[in-house]
Write a structure and sequence with these properties.
By secondary structure, the protein is an alpha/beta fold. It folds into 2 domains: 33-130, Rossmann fold; 140-272, NAD(P)-binding Rossmann-like Domain (Rossmann fold, 3-Layer(aba) Sandwich), CATH 3.40.50.720. The chain contains 10 helices and 10 strands. It has a 5-stranded parallel sheet with strand order 5-4-6-7-10, covered by helices on one side. A 3-stranded parallel sheet has the order 2-1-3, sandwiched between helices. It starts with 6 loop residues before the first helix and ends in a 5-residue tail after the last helix.
Length: 294
């Protein structure tokens, strides 16, 4: 196993697989996967994310619809758009770019998306099905982590996985996925977070450490044991006077500090990040092909 777990390579492989399957689906049934994206406001980072998703749709042969609303849009305007997409048979996935402005209740928006089109996997019904092991749309970042584990042949059975972070988007679902009695899972899982007096007490026990806490370079060499596999989910922008931009991206793990002590690690950027869009597209394809049975 190579030391660097390269999400760019794996995501490119997955997208090629989806592209081929999409061509077959179109030939056999005339169905073209369709993804609808809603963005409210003009946040630069959100704009980049949405453009990347649109671009990927085009590359894979998907149809995409983008609806952009002004920052002062109402919750009703958002709900009306989602309702129309729920009833459009040519749309198989609906994505709402978060965060939303304060006047809009994010949970109300998420809960308005049809279960069959919840390709982000954020609906309570999807998350509930995930917990008990029923077919569902798995949230994209955790799904991407599982795919990296699978394709890099990382042993998980009986291994102690420590997840740093407890978000609904990453921490909770990845913990649930990894303790299930399935291939590429069946692990002993610990979640640790800010309530711990010293998270090193837990992270040093990890055979596989998943950092998803949003604190730049929190995990250093003295937080880990020798030979650990590290999955770094964090994407943080920090000041760097030596960079032409005056800043750089880094993860929740101090990459240089831990590199010589781990057996494998995802870089930032280029590790988990590219997998998230790939798995979003995979979920959208599965929706179009009717592969997820509710």
């Amino acid at each position: 196993m190579t030391k660097i777990i390269d999400g760019k390579i794996v995501s490119a492989q997955i997208k090629e697989e989806i592209k081929a399957n999409t061509q077959l689906l179109k030939q056999k049934s005339g169905i073209i996967p369709g993804l609808a994206l809603l963005i409210v406001g003009e946040d630069p980072a959100s704009q980049v994310y949405v453009r990347n998703k649109e671009k990927t749709c085009l590359e894979l042969g998907f149809n995409s619809i983008l609806k952009q609303l002004p920052i002062d849009a109402t919750e009703k305007e958002c709900l009306d758009i989602i309702h129309s997409w729920n009833n459009d048979e040519n749309i198989h996935g609906i994505l709402v770019q978060l965060p939303l402005p304060k006047q809009i209740n994010e949970q109300n928006i998420i809960k308005s998306i049809s279960l069959q089109k919840d390709v982000d996997g954020f609906l309570p019904e999807n998350l509930g099905r995930l917990v008990i092991g029923l077919p569902c749309y798995v949230p994209c970042t955790p799904n991407g982590i599982i795919e990296l584990i699978k394709r890099y042949n990382i042993e998980t059975k009986g291994k102690h996985v420590v997840v740093v972070g407890r978000s609904n988007i990453v921490g909770k679902p990845i913990a649930n996925l990894l303790y299930q009695k399935k291939e590429n899972a069946n692990s002993i899982v610990t979640i640790c977070h800010t309530a711990a007096d010293d998270i090193r007490e837990y992270t040093k026990q990890a055979d596989i450490l998943i950092a998803a806490v949003g604190v730049p370079e929190l995990i250093k060499a003295d937080y880990i044991k020798e030979g650990v596999v590290i999955i770094d989910v964090g994407v943080n922008r920090v000041s760097d006077p030596s960079s032409p931009k005056g800043s750089r991206l880094c993860g929740d793990v101090d990459y240089n500090s831990v590199f010589d002590h781990c057996s494998a690690i995802t870089p930032v950027p280029g590790g988990v990040g590219p997998m998230t869009i790939a798995m979003l597209m995979q979920n959208t394809y599965k929706s179009a092909a009717g592969e997820i049975k509710f």
